[in-house]
Write a structure and sequence with these properties.
Layout lengths: L5 H5 L2 H20 L2 H5 L2 E8 L5 E3 H8 L8 E14 L2 E14 L2 E16 L2 E11 L11 E6 L2 E2 L1
Parallel strand pairs: 1-6
Antiparallel strand pairs: 1-2, 3-4, 3-7, 4-5, 5-6, 7-8
């Protein structure tokens, strides 16, 4: 059943604000390996497309989510260059993450950009698909676009 206030909400700045908060929650869930909280954000038909192009179903994705972030390995993590585009009850939430990982005693930096596709239905946004791609160093967004920073899994 459609909420009578849905068109008003979707046309309001609150819709984009809510998507920004969902993006922050998505990241927080990743850093904490919080499967239950993350599961609540996902659409029943959720699909993940990895950097290699591999499609991963919801159940496999959530299983991997439980151990995806290791603060002993990922010593720095940030979210930057966020861009949210809403078109009615669909939205694209895009941002880039910088990660510094400790591998064999050496730090290695990389950036990944992602697009999460959200659908608004039954009074809530849910993530229908997430896709991630590596970013070549010449295209790294600048530090002035940083939204949040985590050091060894702790938000600064």
């Amino acid at each position: 059943m459609c909420n009578r206030d849905t068109p008003r909400y979707l046309a309001s700045p609150q819709a984009v604000d809510d998507l920004r908060q969902l993006n922050a929650a998505f990241i927080e869930n990743y850093v904490r390996n919080d499967v239950a909280a993350h599961d609540a954000l996902l659409h029943p038909d959720f699909l993940y497309v990895g950097a290699s192009g591999q499609r991963v179903d919801r159940a496999s994705y959530l299983k991997n989510w439980a151990t995806g972030f290791d603060p002993a390995v990922i010593v720095y993590w940030d979210v930057r260059d966020e861009l949210i585009t809403q078109a009615g009850d669909l939205a694209l939430v895009r941002a880039t993450n910088k990660e510094v990982s400790l591998l064999n005693g050496r730090e290695h930096a990389a950036m990944w950009t992602y697009t999460d596709i959200y659908q608004y239905r039954h009074g809530a946004w849910t993530c229908l698909q997430a896709q991630i791609s590596p970013v070549a160093e010449p295209h790294w967004p600048g530090d002035e676009t940083i939204i949040s920073v985590y050091l060894r899994g702790v938000k600064q």
